[in-house]
Sequence to fold (159 residues):
Amino acid sequence: MDDRSRMEADSFSIPESSWRDVGPDPHPALARLNLAIGLALSEIEQAFPDVRESPAVSAPLGAGAPSPAELALQMHEVAGEILSRVAGDEQNLRQVIGTLRTALAVCWDLYSVRESERTTVSEHMQNLKGRIEDFERELRALRRASTRGDAPGGSVEGR
Fold:
């Protein structure tokens, strides 16, 4: 695997996590979410009585609670599915708008109007690619340090 593929894989993976790492702070929000999900399930069951007769969903024996990262990804997937059902026709447009707004903000952060007159698009793209690769290398180093139990090193501040 070349260096670039390894960096991209690192940026799309999640680290190991435990609830002890997270601490008690998310408990109230998770409790509210648990209540909201219970109410939503009740409303779905009233609207579609057949869902009550479907096989019960259960975790494998001894599976325990999902890790914080696993739970967050599951919630993200369910939220995406629900949003696609209630605003699916808008989803692609919202993603494009968000991506373009991010790109515009990055351009303004990297170059002022005056600098943009002296910098070519190609130079701008190379600079941006270099910054992304720097952050990906920092992410890999942070992951290596956290698996060894070292203190996290590096910072994104000042870039």
Residues 113-149 form one domain.
